[in-house]
C-alpha cells in the first residue's frame, strides 16, 4: 500500500471518529457505534491484511498483536478503543513512512540532479539527444547553467563547475583543457567541450547513486539484532498476555497489555538513524557503504595514512636534477623515455618535466620490467637503464658512491624524494621530486585525536628522511617508510592482532590491498576512481582530507543517535507496561503514547540529516572574510 492510499484511509477513519464524537454529543448512540465500527473496519483492514501475510509466512509481526487486540475489543463491545487503536496505529505508520522519506532526501536530491539531455557534435552539427544515447568518444558541448551528462576530459574552453553532487563541495571548481569533469555536475559559468569517456551506468554519478542505494539497504549489526529480537519478542508478548489474563481474568487489561507491548519504536530505532546518517554523508561527499561500516567506523582507535596523494596534495614536481658523467638534459631525456609507459605518479612527473623543457622523447623503451614499490628497468637506445629507490639499486647490484649518497640524503632531509638512475651498475643521476603537504592535514589529525583516535600512523613507500619530516610536521605518532604494498598489508595485520580497530586511508589505487585489509578502508579523492569505490568501505569524494573528520564524527553521532533511540524506546515500553498493570494507562491513551514514541524516535534521527561538524568553522571563516 502506498503512502497516499494509507493517508486517504487515515483521513476517512479520522472523519468517522469525529462523527462518532458528534453523535455522542447528540446522544445518538446507534449512529455513534456504527461510526466507530466502520472506522475500525476501514483503518483495521490494512493492518489485518499485513498481519495475515506475516502469519502465512510463519512470522510474528506487530500488526498481529494489534489485530488480536482490536478483534478482542470489538468482541467485548469496546468500540471506542478499537477505533482509536486502529486509527492511531495507521496514522503512526503514515507519519513514519512520510518522515523516513525525508531521511532519504539526500538520495532523492542526487537522483533529481541526473542529467536527461546532452548536446553532442554529429556530422559537424550540434544536436541535443537523450543522455543515455551519448556514445564514448563523442564531443559534448556544455554551456553555463547546463548539467554535464557524461564523464570525460575537457578538450577546449574553460568553466567553473559546481561539483556538489559528486564531492559535496559547494565552491565551484575551475576546469580547463585536460581536466576531467563528471556527470551530474553543473556549469556555473563558462563553456567547455568534453570528449566522452564514460556514459550511463558507468559514470561516477551513476555509481554514487548505486552505492548510496546499496548502503541504505545494508543493515548494521545492531539493526540485525533488533530484527531478530522482534521475531522472538512478539510470541513472548502473546504468551505473557495469556498469563496476564489467567491471573487477572480482565480481558480489557490483557488486550491493553498486548497492544502497548508492541516494540514499534524499538524496531525502527536503528534503521532510521542509519538511513539518516548515510544520507547526511552522501549529501556532503562522504559515501559510507552501509550501517555495519558506520558502526565499525565509530569504533576506530587507530588511523593509518598513506603519504603521497593523501597527506600530501599528490601534485609533486621535479625540484632538482644532479647528473653524473652526462648532461642534465640527456639524463632527464633517458629517464623520461623509460617512464613513458609507467603508471606510477613519480614517473609521470618526470615525463612532464621533460615535456615542459621541450625535450624530444624519441626512443621507445624495450624489455620493460616494472616492480611495484621499487622501480623500473628498461632498455633505452641499447642501454640497460634502472630507475627507482635505493632498494632497487641494491637489488640490481648498483654501487651508490659516498658522493651520491650524501647528495641524496641532503635532498631527502629537505623533504624531497630521491629517484636514482643507473646504467650498467653505475649511477648516472639523481632526480629530486617534492610534494606539498595538504594545508588541512595537521588540523585533521588533531581533530581525529580529539575525537577518540588513540594513535595515528603513516605507511609509505617513500624514503625514511622525507617520511619522518612530514610526520614531524603533522604530529603523526609513528611512521614506517620504504614499504612495499605487501609490507603495508603486514603492518595493518600486526596492528589488528594487537587489538586495535584500524582504519586505513589512501588514494584507492596503490593502497588497495592495505585498504581492503583494514577494519575500515577509506579512499579519498574518489571522483572517477573505480578502484576507490570498489575497494574502500568509505569513499571521500572530495579531494580534501577534512572530509575524513566529518566521516568519523558523523559515524559517532549516528551510533550515539541510534543508542538514544533504543534507550528511549525501551524506557517507554517499560513505563507503559507498568502503567497498564497498575491500571493507570488504558488502551486508547496507551496507544497514543506508543505512537508518539515512534514519532519522537524518527524526529530524533532526523537531526542527523542536518548534522554538520563544519558549520562552526564555516561561520568563523565567513566572519574573517567580513573583517577583511
Report what the structure shows.
The model is unreliable at 614-628 (pLDDT under 50). The chain is built from 24 helices and 20 strands. The protein is of the alpha+beta class. The chain is elongated. A hairpin with a 3-residue loop joins strand 11 (366-371) and strand 12 (375-380). The chain is 55% helix and 19% strand. Among the domains are: 1-103; 116-203, Calcium-transporting ATPase, cytoplasmic transduction domain A (Distorted Sandwich); 284-304 and 440-464 and 474-556, HAD superfamily/HAD-like (Rossmann fold), CATH 3.40.50; 317-434, Calcium-transporting ATPase, cytoplasmic domain N, CATH 3.40.1110.10.
The total count of strands amounts to: 20
> What top-tier CATH class of one domain fits best?
Alpha Beta
Unreliable stretches covering 5 or more consecutive residues: 614-628
- The geometry reads as elongated
Q: What class would the helix/strand composition place it in?
A: alpha+beta
Mean pLDDT figure: 81
- The CATH topology label of one domain is Rossmann fold
